[in-house]
Amino acid sequence: MEKVLQFLENLSANNNKDWFHDNRKLYEESRDKILFITEILINEIRKFDPEIPVMNPKDCMFRIFRDVRFSNDKRPYKTNFGSFIASGGRKSLLAGYYFHIEPDGSFAGGGLHMPPAEQLRAIRSHIAKNGHEFLEITQKESFKKVYPEMFEHKLKTAPKGFPKDHEFVDLLRYQSFVFSTNLKKEIITGDSFVDYLVNAFSELYDVNRFINNGVNKFL
To answer: Mean pLDDT by 10-residue block, N- to C-terminus, for the chain (219 residues)?
Structure first.
């Protein structure tokens, strides 16, 4: 993974089409490394999450090419690699497992980021009735050790349709249900990187199951 990080560092300093064209082989080697890791992770995650199907890793990995049509930032390439492993791949509307490789900004985690209104309403309804189960999962010692807290992205008050004094109003205010853990360079470049990801993802299984049960039950 050392070469992948080096490629991304060089791309960050030379984010233009000419440099990318001249270094296309390095990009392809880095991409293939991430695809290889993604394929291994799919197979390993399937051992503890039966909802993950056999998938082509290309369906999970995000493209490095940026859509600059409506952006003031015209840099043509992302400076990271990432894969989202869930039923339906990177376009899935279900909770899943994500790893992100970027110099000085790598992390792993999962859940469901900014679901559309229908899915979000379904998850909130599930939490409203089963909040104790969600808290029990996320307060486990082994879980908290990897994921100390949920991504802080929530409303200032109770969402529409839920009372302000609801027992689980603090959970209902969330707009994303995402957990992550930072990945240090020595972890990424070490021999146990994949094992580290598998262990981190295994802690997320119960959270993803809870979220997806909500989505599937109420839609």
So the answer is: 96 95 96 97 97 96 86 86 96 95 95 93 95 96 93 89 93 95 95 96 97 84
- Of 153, 156, 157, nearest to 180 by C-alpha is 153
Q: Indicate left, alpha or beta for 138 from its phi (over 0: left) and psi (-120 to 50: alpha).
A: alpha
- Residue 155 CB: number of other CB atoms within 10 A? 12
Q: Provide the residue ranges of all domains of the chain, joining segments of one domain with +.
A: 2-218
Query: Strand, coil or helix: what is 74?
Result: coil
Taking the CB of residue 36, how many other CB atoms lie within 10 A of it?
12
Tokens of 191: 């021999």
Rounded-to-integer distance, Cα 189 and Cα 187, Å: 6
Residue type, 214: G
Chain centroid to Cα 158, Å, comes to: 26
Question: Would you say domain 2-218 falls under CATH 1.10.3110?
Answer: no
pTM above 0.85, yes or no: yes
- CA 196 to chain CA mean position, Å: 15
| Residue 169 burial (10 A CB sphere; 0-12, 13-18, 19+) | middle
What's the rounded Cα separation, in Å, for the pair 132 and 55?
33
